[in-house]
C-alpha cells in the first residue's frame, strides 16, 4: 500500500445505488482507516457536474454510524476533498480517455509510483459492455491492478447472461471481474459457514436425515414505488430469487469445502447448484400486489405505478419448491419465497427438523406434532438473530410442555449498535482481491439454468400472477404449494 494509490471509479455516479450504497460504504471504509492513504474517488456519468457539484451530491449521502461520531465532520470533509468528477458517455472512447487523463493527474499528484484502479459499474444493462470496454481499454492502470465490479441484472436468462459474459470477457480477464450479490456481504450470510463448520452441534444434523424442509424467505413491506420501469423487465424471480435466495441456498446446502479459499468455496457452490433440478411450473406460485384501502388511504397496486406498463403480468411475489438431487438432500424441499408490498420487511432462513422418533412426550403435543419439532431460524434482517426452538417443561408442578427459544440476538449479544453494510465488506474484499463472496462465471451459469426454462414458460404462456392486497401475506397459492410438500411456512407466527 505504501507505494500504491487507489482510485475507485463509480461509473453511473448519479444513480440511486451509488448514492444510497456505494458512496456511504466508501466513506465508512475510509473513516475506519481501511483504505490506502492515497485513495481517491472518481464519479463518471452523463450529467455535467463540476467537482464541487459532485462533492455536494456525495455530501448529502454521507452519515456516520452512531458509534463513530468522533471527528465525523472532519473526516467527511477530508473524504470529499478526495472526490473528483468526470462527465461522459458510457459508449464514448473520448470520455474514458478524459477520465483516464484526470485520474492520471490526481494519482501523479499523490506522489505514489503505482496506482490500483477499481471500477464499479452501476449502470443500466444496455450500456454495460460499452462501459466495461471503455474502462478496460482506456483506463487500465499500467502500474497496478485494474478490477471491475459488476452487479445484476446479469442478463435475463441463460443466453443473455452468456452473451454479457462474452462481452465482458472481450475486455477483461475473469480474475479482474467481481460479480456482486450484495446478500453475500450481509453479516448473517457470512456467518452461515462459520455456524455450520465451526460448531459441532449443527453440521451432523445438516442433512435429509434430520431436516424436514428449509425455507428461505424474503419480504418487503413496500412496493416498487417508481422503480417499476426497471423491475417490470425482470420481476421478482430474477430480482431476488435467482440470485440472493439461491446464493443463500447454495451456501446453506453445499458440502464442506476443502478450505476457505475462494475457489474451494465456489467449487462447492457450483456443485450443489448443478445437483439441483430446474424449477418446475407446478412447483411455483406467482403473485402481483393490488391496491388496498388502509387507514383512510389507498395503498397503490403494482399497476398503479406510473413506470409500470399497463396490464403487466410481471410477478412481484413468487414462491417455489426446489430440490437437490444428492445424497445429503434427496427429497428435502427447499422452499424459496420473495415478495414486495407484503405485511413486513424480513429476510430469514428457517430450518424445520424432523419429528423425534418414538417421542415419549408425543401425547403432550396433541395432534399437531409438526408445530413441536425443532426449528432453527437465522434472521438475516432486520434485527439479526439466530434462534432455535426447543421444547421444555413449563416450570411448576405437573407436566406441561412448551416450545421456547434458545435465542441469540445480535445487537445485544455483540453490543454493536450497527453492523457494517454489505457493500462495505464487499468493496473492501475487492480492494484486497478476495473473491470468496463474489459469483464465478460457472456459478452464474448454473444459477440461470435452474430458472431459465421456467421463466420462458411463464412468459410464453403469459401466466397471470395471483393478485394479493398490498400489505398482506401474499397469495394463498403459497400455502397450497407448501402443503403439497407437507410443509407449513414458519414465518406466520
Ligand atoms: C436488490 C433488489 O437486489 O435487493 C431490490 O433489486 C431489493 O428489489 C433489494 O429491494 C433488497 O436489498 P436489501 O439489502 O435492502 O434487503
TrEMBL record:
Domain Glucose-6-phosphate dehydrogenase NAD-binding stretches = 9-191
Query: Where's the Glucose-6-phosphate dehydrogenase C-terminal domain?
Result: 194-489
Q: Which GO terms are recorded in the biological process aspect for this UniProt protein?
A: glucose metabolic process; pentose-phosphate shunt, oxidative branch
Pathway field of the UniProt record reads: Carbohydrate degradation; pentose phosphate pathway; D-ribulose 5-phosphate from D-glucose 6-phosphate (oxidative stage): step 1/3
**UniProt keyword Oxidoreductase, yes or no:** yes
Which region is the signal sequence? none
Extract the GO molecular function terms from the UniProt entry: glucose-6-phosphate dehydrogenase activity; NADP binding
Annotated coiled-coil segments of the chain: none
Q: Which reaction does it catalyse?
A: D-glucose 6-phosphate + NADP(+) = 6-phospho-D-glucono-1,5-lactone + NADPH + H(+)
EC code: 1.1.1.49
Record key words, sorted: Carbohydrate metabolism, Glucose metabolism, NADP, Oxidoreductase
Family the UniProt entry places it in: Belongs to the glucose-6-phosphate dehydrogenase family.
Q: What function does the entry list? A: Catalyzes the rate-limiting step of the oxidative pentose-phosphate pathway, which represents a route for the dissimilation of carbohydrates besides glycolysis.
Report the protein name in the record.
Glucose-6-phosphate 1-dehydrogenase
Q: What is the protein's species of origin? A: Pleodorina starrii
In the UniProt record, what gene is named as encoding this protein? PLEST010208
